[in-house]
Amino acid sequence: MISSESVFDLMSEVYFADLRADRASKSVPQKISRLFKRAGLADTFHKGDLVAIKSHFGESNSTSFLRPQYVSTIVDLVAAKGGKPFLTDCNTLYLGGRSNAVDHLSLAAKHGFAPPVVNAPMVIGDGLTGQDSFEIPVGLKHCKTVKVGTVVEHTDSILCVSHVKGHMLSGIGGAIKNLGMGFGSRAGKLDMHHNIKPVVKTPSCKGCGECARHCPAGAISIIDKKARIARKKCIGCGECFVSCFNDAISPGKWAPAEELEERMVEYCYGIIKEKGKERIGYVSFIVDVTPHCDCVPWSDMPFVTDVGILASKDIVAIDQAAGDLINAQVGLEGSVLRRTWGKARTRSVPCMRRTGASSLSMRRSSAWAKRSTSY
Ligand code: SF4
Ligand code: SF4
To answer: Contact, 42 vs 141, CB < 8 A?
Structure first.
């Protein structure tokens, strides 16, 4: 437990297992099973329910996405309790290997998210081209409604299984990113990104045109050997940040990035409101903690050592726990994180801090109790 007794009642339980092992009973699948039980995740669904295992199958050439063997264990636990698990994610806004269901399913299978590795079917949550969208009224600061894949409407329960790593806009990519951004339909992802306006750092630009080739909106031109962005055409997808290997594009001021985080949190609120808090559980793996997320087509060295696995029924608490545990590690000297994001460690979780105090009726971000099982 890492907080004072006086706030214990406000805490949400987050169960933690480290990754040390010297016998079969300490294997990762065994630890996942015990965490699943201790966190009461089987209570989030009933026998015969459709249970969406919200995952992320990794971009092409990424090698640090969540191991399918971990997800497989969760699938088996759900099936053993009578649920009907299926793996799901929604299509991406940017070009790449997951922008339509055909490419997405093919890439997922190539990465091992298919039988016989994972014994569950795959369903792309927003249809063939990301247009199967379901609107949930929320009436919050930025969003009147949130637009998510129709899978959110039709599934009975959700288990949000996240790989925790760095992220170029939200600082950390964990459960909030996985649920809120991940379940956004194409319209929803556009909505969350709308205020991101990238800026070319002209002196650093080599005029290679890589960003223009990746821009799905045709918003980038190379003029006089420098990239220029047509703001009116830009949809804020962020593809240019990650496609520039010269660190010559930034997301502009942090203010718009913070708005994206707030919007992402509002999307989480909508999904939780729609399904009911008791119908969603979370498992987060703090392994392969790379500076960039799994949407980029490469994987850098992790900037901290592998930490462990978390399980909870509280999305804010589990992400705060992940951020705290990462920040307690020694950072990798010379990590790209320092050059790109200005710090050797991930930023703390700003969207969660604000969310905890806002209208989202979630627990305070600082309120989590680390319940370590006896591993
Ligand atoms: S990818 Fe980077 S260096 Fe190349 S043109 Fe675009 S901004 Fe310039
Ligand atoms: S310019 Fe805008 S639309 Fe084009 S890749 Fe960058 S963020 Fe996406």
So the answer is: no
